[in-house]
């Protein structure tokens, strides 16, 4: 049984390693290069195995000239693109927030472009070597010519897309949109299935517990494997942590109905890493957006407009459940329960730092009140109540920070208009 937990742990970590944008940056070009090599070998194999009918005799010099153009231009373009990409990542890290860099790295257009340029360069080099060695007959040369024209057409299309991407890569609006897209995906998954198809009510009397032996952030729980363990050992678990939670040495991860001798087997089902990940963590993208807003409000930047923009994006993400009807998801893991998500995590950790940095800025303070007013109408009653309660707190902090009597009066009037007669429907 110890091996089951161990392999579940290592398999998930390998999957996460493969999905990590930092690894995809080089893995995607590597796979594209392999594809180019496979295509050239396939042409050679077909050429030597099957007599290829062709109606046009291809001049080898013409094909060589095209391959020369691809090889020389793609090497330059790939080098230039890599330089631009690295500069964009550095710009995001230093001017926006380091946490956003990984999300920018995950941009598929960037990965596809770099992969295409490098693969095309190597394709052209290997094809020229093959032609020089005379390994292709006229039929193989004909196939190689057709494939080269297809590669050329694909490169033209990719270059056009790449030019469009270069104009926005690393810019604030583009970065925020990427974070917004990922955050919406995660929060929709959360609203549709907040408890991961687990039992909502506790299953044990909390007599026995499992303590963490690591420190970091919980990135994933292997629910299926843990439930299989329960079935084999007639056990039940009440999980009291969720992905995204900070875990310290000795933190209680779960309670169980029976004594577990091999606790290491259970610990393998809880994946703890040094940094937070957005997988199964609906709060992470919002925290990154909050960091961007904080930076915009810092004295060195002093850009309240960007902070207001970020606040609006946060409110749009949190209201993604407006079209999701509450349902009773199927219980797939009947031996596991999980603690409910604390809706305050969507309010205080996100808006609190922005309120702190928005002192004396009447525009940001007013916008924060307006967005909290929209959140108090959210169909999730707990989130709505948290938003309304924090609106009062933020109003009191904002009123104290404002020094001009006219600004205080305006701020008070707007708050009263938004919240005086508002009720959650």
Automatic annotation (TrEMBL):
Keyword Transmembrane helix attributed: yes
The keyword Lyase is annotated on this UniProt entry: no
InterPro entries: DUF2254_membrane
Residues spanning the membrane: 25-46, 66-92, 113-135, 141-163
Top-rank taxon, per record: Bacteria
Any Pfam family: DUF2254
Keywords carried by this UniProt record: Membrane, Transmembrane, Transmembrane helix
Protein name: Membrane protein
Organism: uncultured Sulfurovum sp
């Amino acid at each position: 049984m110890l091996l089951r937990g161990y392999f579940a742990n290592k398999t998930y970590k390998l999957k996460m390693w493969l999905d990590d944008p930092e690894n995809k940056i080089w893995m995607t070009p590597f796979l594209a290069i392999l594809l180019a090599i496979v295509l050239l070998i396939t042409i050679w194999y077909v050429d030597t195995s099957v007599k290829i009918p062709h109606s046009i005799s291809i001049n080898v010099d013409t094909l060589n000239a095209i391959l020369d153009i691809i090889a020389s231009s793609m090497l330059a373009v790939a080098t230039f693109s890599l330089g631009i990409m690295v500069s964009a990542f550095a710009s995001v890290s230093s001017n926006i927030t380091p946490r956003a860099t990984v999300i920018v790295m995950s941009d598929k257009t960037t990965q596809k472009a770099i992969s295409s340029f490098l693969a095309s360069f190597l394709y052209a080099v290997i094809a020229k070597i093959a032609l020089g060695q005379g390994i292709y007959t006229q039929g193989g040369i004909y196939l190689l010519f057709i494939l080269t024209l297809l590669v050329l057409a694909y490169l033209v299309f990719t270059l056009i897309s790449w030019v469009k991407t270069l104009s926005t890569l690393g810019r604030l609006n583009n970065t925020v949109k990427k974070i917004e897209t990922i955050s919406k995906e995660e929060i929709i998954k959360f609203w549709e299935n907040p408890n991961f198809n687990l039992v909502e009510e506790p299953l044990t009397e909390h007599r026995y517990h499992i303590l963490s032996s690591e420190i970091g952030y919980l990135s994933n729980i292997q629910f299926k494997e843990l439930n299989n363990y329960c079935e084999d050992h007639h056990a039940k678990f009440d999980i009291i942590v969720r992905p995204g939670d900070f875990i310290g040495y000795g933190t209680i991860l779960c309670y169980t109905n029976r004594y577990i001798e091999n606790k290491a087997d259970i610990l393998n089902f809880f994946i703890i890493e040094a940094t937070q990940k957005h997988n199964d963590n609906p709060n992470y993208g919002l925290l990154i957006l909050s960091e961007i807003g904080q930076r915009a409000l810092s004295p060195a930047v002093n850009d309240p407009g960007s902070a207001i923009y970020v606040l609006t994006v946060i409110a749009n993400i949190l209201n993604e459940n407006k079209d999701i009807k509450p349902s009773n998801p199927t219980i797939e893991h009947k031996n596991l329960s999980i603690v409910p998500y604390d809706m305050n995590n969507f309010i205080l950790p996100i808006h609190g730092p922005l309120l702190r940095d928005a002192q004396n800025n009447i525009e940001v303070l007013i916008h924060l009140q307006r967005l909290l007013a929209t959140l108090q109408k959210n169909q999730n009653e707990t989130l709505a109540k948290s938003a309304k309660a924090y609106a009062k707190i933020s109003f009191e902090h904002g009123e104290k920070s404002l020094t001009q009597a006219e600004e205080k009066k305006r701020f008070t009037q707007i708050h009263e208009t938004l919240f005086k007669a508002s009720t959650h429907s």
